[in-house]
Amino acid sequence: MFELDFTTILGFGAAILSTFAGVHQLVKAWRTRSTGDLSLLFLLMALGGCVLWLAYGFLLDSLPIVAANSVGLVVLSTTLYFKFRYGMADRADTV
Q1: CATH architecture assigned to 11-94
Q2: What is the DSSP letter of 21?
Q3: Which residues contact 49 (CB under 8 A, 6 or more apart)?
Q4: Residues 15, 67: contact at Cβ < 8 Å?
């Protein structure tokens, strides 16, 4: 088990801020049904980084890293799904 010391609290604080920073983009994409202003390269790189951080967190047995990147993986994957779903719709409207 882990101790709730200053380092762990600091880790959770960083995890909460960095993980939920992407939630705004996800909600915006869902509400507007538009993702044209979201960079595909950014989403793919962030998703790759999230997967690597998740693996790193498991190797370190670090709950803040695993928790943050598990949520981040869901947020980024869903945003990427919207990017493809709504991006295809945007292109079909212009053809």
Answers
A1: Up-down Bundle (1.20)
A2: T
A3: none
A4: yes
Among the listed residues 86, 95, 71, the one whose alpha carbon sits nearest the alpha carbon of residue 38: 86
Cβ(10)–Cβ(43) under 8 Å?
A: no
C-beta of residue 40 within 8 angstroms of C-beta of residue 89: no
Q: What is the pLDDT of residues 6-20, one digit of tens each?
A: 988 888 888 888 888
CA distance 1 to 26: 33
The tens digit of pLDDT for each residue in 43-66 reads 999 999 999 999 999 999 988 889
Q: Identify whether the C-beta of residue 42 lies closer than 8 Å to the C-beta of residue 79.
A: no
13, 68 Cβ separation under 8 angstroms: no
Q: How many residues does the chain have?
A: 95
For residue 6, the tally of other CB atoms under 10 A from its CB is 8
Residue 73's Cβ-count burial label (10 Å; 0-12, 13-18, 19+) is middle
Amino acid at position 54, single letter: L
